[in-house]
Specification:
The structure holds two protein chains of two kinds.
Chain A lengths: L1 H13 L4 H14 L6 H19 L1 E5 L5 H12 L9 E5 L6 E6 L2 E6 H14 L1
Parallel strand pairs in A: 1-2
Antiparallel strand pairs in A: 1-3, 3-4
Helix pairs in contact in A: 1-2, 1-3
Chain B lengths: L2 H12 L8 E10 L2 E6 L7 E6 L6 H6 L4 E8 L3 E6 L11 E8 L1 E4 L7 E2 L16 E4 L22 H6 L9 E4 L5 H11 L10 E7 L3 H13 L6 E6 L5 H20 L3 E7 L1 H14 L13 H9 L3 E2 L8 E9 L8 H9 L2 E5 L1 H6 L11 E2 L8 H7 L2 H15 L7 H17 L9 H12 L11 H15 L1 H10 L4 H17 L14
Parallel strand pairs in B: 8-12, 10-15, 10-16, 11-12, 11-13, 13-15
Antiparallel strand pairs in B: 1-2, 1-6, 2-5, 3-4, 3-6, 4-5, 7-9, 14-15, 16-17
Classes of the chains: A alpha+beta, B alpha/beta.
Chain lengths: 129, 528
C-alpha cells in the first residue's frame, strides 16, 4: 500500500504538481481515511523511488587512478558525441580494480575499456582453446 | 610453465582486439527464488539472453575465479525494466549487479556430436565426456513449419510393442500422448520404443531424444545405463533437467530437446522426441509464472499454459519432399492422478496430440503389461502409416479385446455360459496373454506380424493360458531360425502375400509337430 501511495505521489510531482501541495493533499487524504500512520512508510518508499530515478540518470566514468581521469574523459567524449549524455553530467570515480583504462556506465549504457576487461577476455579465450 | 600454453597466451595477446561499442545494460533491483527484477534494459526482447556481470567492482583474480558466465532469460517486459529468470546458480546474483543485454535469443547446440551424450537443458555436457566443438546452435524458440511445408504421416514408427504397433500405430511425424497414473509403465513404453529403433536399418533409423523433466537423477542414470546396455545410445541424446534444477531449466528442457531434433529433421532425417513428462514442465512453468507475478488462472496455471504445450508439440512435423522429407515424432508423457484424464493439463495435451495411449493402473496391478487400456487409447493418424501386413493380421484385434472386456465383467456373476461366449472369453484371455510383453524386450515388426497371424489362425487355442507366452517365445525362435527369409520379406515388402501366408501356415504346422507336448488335446479351430 505504501509503495502505491509513494508511486502516485511521484507521478503527480513528475507531471508538474507542486511537491508541497501534493504532500499536503496526500496527508489530508490519509487523515480522512484514518491512515496517517502510513506516512513514514510512504516517505521511505518515496526516497527509494527518488534514489532509483537518480541512479538511472547518473553517468559514472571509472578510472584506475585519478591521473587517468583527464585522458579517459577525452576518450569518452568522443564516444558520447552522438548520445544525449553531456560530459558535464559525467561523474569520475576511482576503481583500482580496473588496473588501467576506463569504464563508462549510466543511462542503460556501458562501455568497458578497462585493462581488467581486456585481460579477462584474453583469459577466457585461452581457456576456451 | 608449459611452452605451448605460453605460446597460446602470446598468440591471443598478439591477435587481441578490444571489443568496440557500447553495451546496453540494466541493474538488478531484487532477486529471489531464481527470478530477478532489473531496472533498465529497455531494448531487451522477450526470450533474450542476458549476462550478469559478476566481475564489476571486484579484483581481476576474483573475476578469473568466477565459474563461467552466468546468464538469464528475459520473460517479462515491464514499464521500467524487465523480469528474468536465472539460468544457473541464483546465489551468484546480488542486488545492484550490472546486467548486459546480449541481443541473442536462447539457443542450444545440436549435431552428430551430441549423439550418445547426456546434456543439460542448455546443451551443456553432463556426462564428463568433454565439450562440443563442432555443434551447430539451434534456437530454442522457433516458429513451427506451416501447412505447405508438411505432408501427411505415411511411414510407421515401430515401437516394438505388439499392443501399440497393432492397435494404436504411430506414424513418423505424429504426436502420440502416453498418459497414465504414476508407476504404470509410461517411461518403459518410451524407452522400449527407443531400443526398438535398433531393429531399423541404419539409414532409416530415427535419432532419438529423451527429455527428462523434473525426474530423479537416479532414474535418468538408470535409463542412460539401460540404453547403453541395449546399444541404443549411439543414436540417442538425453536432455536432463532433474528435479533439483531451477524451474526455468525444467520449463526450457522440452524446447531444448525439440530444437536439437529440428537440426536433424531439417537435414531430412527422422527424429523421435520423448518428453518425460509435460505435467512436471507445466508445474515448473506455473511456479515461474507466479514468481514473475503473472495473473494465475485455473489451478493457478497462467493463461498461456495451453500455448506452452501447443507451440512445443506443433514443432513435430512430417516434412514435404521439398523440405527434405525429414520428420519429428513426439511422444509426450502426462502423469494423471487416480486415473483422471479430465483434469486441466491432460485435457489440454489430449486435444493437441494426434492420439493417446492410456495406461490403466488396475490392468497393471492385474499383471497386464504394458497396461494399455485399448478402449480409450487411440491413434488418429497412425493407421495411415501401418503396413498392410500388420493391418491384415491386426484388423479384428480391437474388437476381440473389446468383446472380451465386456464379457469379462459379465462373467463375474454368470453361472452357465453358452459355448460361443465361452469361446470368446477364452480367445480374449489368450489374446491378452499374447499382447503381454516384458519391459526392455521390444519385438521387430515382422515377428509381431508372425505372432499375430498365428493368433488369428487360433494357433494358441489349445495352449494352456499359463504357457501362452512360453509358446510364443518358442514359436518366434523357431520362425526366426527356420523362416528368416520369409520374415525378411514381410519387413521389406510390408505385405502378407498368399505365398507368405502359406509358408507361415507350414511353419505353424511344423512347430506344432515339433512341440506337441505344449498343445492340449483340443483340435485347432479352423481359420476364418
Amino acid at each position: 500500500m505504501d509503495k502505491a501511495y509513494a508511486q502516485a505521489l511521484w507521478r503527480i510531482i513528475e507531471d508538474g504538481a507542486n511537491p508541497r501541495g501534493a504532500v499536503k493533499t496526500l496527508c489530508q487524504a490519509l487523515g480522512a481515511r484514518g491512515r496517517l500512520g502510513l506516512l513514514p512508510k510512504i516517505a521511505r518508499a518515496f526516497s527509494l523511488l527518488a534514489a532509483r530515478a537518480e541512479a538511472k540518470n547518473v553517468v559514472v566514468l571509472k578510472v584506475a587512478r585519478y591521473a587517468d581521469g583527464k585522458r579517459a574523459l577525452k576518450e569518452a567524449r568522443e564516444l558520447l558525441k552522438d548520445s544525449t549524455i553531456k560530459t558535464d553530467d559525467v561523474k569520475i570515480n576511482i576503481d583500482e580494480n580496473l588496473i588501467g583504462g576506463w569504464r563508462l556506465e549510466g543511462r542503460e549504457l556501458l562501455h568497458d575499456a578497462s585493462y581488467k576487461r581486456q585481460l579477462l577476455d584474453i583469459y577466457e579465450r585461452v581457456l576456451e582453446k | 610453465m608449459d611452452q605451448s600454453i605460453v605460446q597460446k597466451i602470446i598468440n591471443e595477446i598478439e591477435h587481441y582486439t578490444p571489443k568496440a561499442g557500447v553495451e546496453h545494460v540494466g541493474r538488478v533491483t531484487s532477486v529471489g527464488d531464481g527470478v530477478v527484477a532489473i531496472d533498465g534494459l529497455s531494448r531487451a526482447v522477450m526470450g533474450e539472453i542476458i549476462q550478469f556481470e559478476e566481475t564489476a567492482g571486484r579484483p581481476l583474480s576474483k573475476g578469473m575465479e568466477a565459474a563461467g558466465a552466468l546468464h538469464g532469460l528475459v520473460l517479462n517486459l515491464e514499464e521500467d525494466g524487465v523480469r528474468a529468470t536465472i539460468l544457473g546458480d541464483s546465489a551468484r546474483v546480488n542486488e545492484g549487479m550490472t546486467v548486459k543485454s546480449t541481443g541473442r535469443i536462447l539457443s542450444v547446440p545440436s549435431g552428430d556430436e551430441l549423439l550418445g551424450r547426456v546434456v543439460s537443458a542448455l546443451g551443456e555436457p553432463l556426462d564428463g565426456k568433454g565439450p562440443f566443438t563442432k555443434a551447430t546452435m539451434m534456437p530454442v524458440e522457433r516458429e513451427s513449419y506451416g501447412v505447405i511445408d508438411r505432408k501427411s504421416v505415411s511411414v510407421p514408427l515401430q515401437t516394438g510393442i505388439k499392443a501399440i504397433d497393432s492397435m494404436i500405430p504411430i506414424g513418423r511425424g505424429q504426436r502420440e500422448l502416453i498418459i497414465g497414473d504414476r508407476s504404470t509403465g509410461k517411461t518403459t513404453i518410451a524407452i522400449d520404443t527407443i531400443i526398438n529403433q535398433k531393429n531399423e536399418p541404419a539409414e532409416k533409423r530415427p535419432i532419438c531424444i529423451y527429455v527428462a523433466i523434473g525426474q530423479k537423477e537416479s532414474k535418468t542414470a538408470r535409463i542412460a545405463q539401460q540404453l547403453t546396455e541395449a546399444g541404443a545410445m549411439p543414436y540417442t541424446i538425453i536432455v536432463d533437467a532433474p528435479a533439483s534444477t531451477p524451474a526455468a531449466l525444467q520449463f526450457l528442457a522440452p524446447y531444448a530437446g525439440v530444437a536439437m531434433g529440428e537440426y536433424f529433421m531439417d537435414r531430412g532425417q527422422d527424429v523421435l522426441v520423448i518428453y518425460d513428462d509435460l505435467s512436471k514442465q507445466a508445474t515448473a512453468y506455473r511456479q515461474l509464472s507466479l514468481l514473475l507475478r503473472r495473473p494465475p488462472g485455473r489451478e493457478a496455471y497462467p493463461g498461456d499454459i495451453f500455448y506452452l504445450h501447443s507451440r512445443l508439440l506443433e514443432r513435430s512435423a512430417c516434412l514435404s519432399e521439398e523440405k527434405g522429407g525429414g520428420s519429428l515424432t513426439a511422444l509426450p508423457i502426462i502423469e494423471t492422478q487416480d486415473g483422471d484424464v479430465a483434469t486441466y493439463i491432460p485435457t489440454n495435451v489430449i486435444s493437441i496430440t494426434d492420439g493417446q495411449i492410456f495406461l490403466d493402473s488396475s490392468l497393471f496391478n492385474k499383471g497386464v503389461r504394458p497396461a494399455i487400456d485399448v478402449g480409450i487409447s487411440v491413434s488418429r493418424v497412425g493407421s495411415a502409416a501401418q503396413t498392410k501386413a500388420m493391418k491384415s493380421v491386426a484388423g479384428t484385434l480391437r474388437l476381440v479385446l473389446a468383446q472380451f472386456r465386456e464379457l469379462e465383467a459379465f462373467m463375474q456373476f454368470a453361472q452357465d455360459l453358452d459355448k460361443m461366449t465361452a469361446d470368446r472369453i477364452e480367445s480374449g484371455r489368450r489374446m491378452v496373454e499374447i499382447l503381454k510383453q516384458r519391459n526392455g524386450s521390444p519385438i521387430s515388426v515382422e515377428k509381431q506380424v508372425a505372432v499375430l497371424y498365428a493368433a488369428d489362425k487360433k494357433f494358441f487355442a489349445d495352449v494352456a493360458i499359463t504357457r501362452v507366452s512360453e509358446v510364443e517365445a518358442l514359436l518366434l525362435e523357431f520362425v526366426d531360425g527356420q523362416y528368416a527369409k520369409e520374415l525378411a520379406e514381410i519387413r521389406k515388402s510390408g505385405v502378407m502375400s498368399e505365398a507368405l501366408k502359406k509358408k507361415l501356415d507350414r511353419a505353424l504346422e511344423e512347430f506344432r509337430l515339433a512341440h506337441g507336448e505344449l498343445f492340449g488335446s483340443q483340435p485347432v479351430a479352423s481359420s476364418k
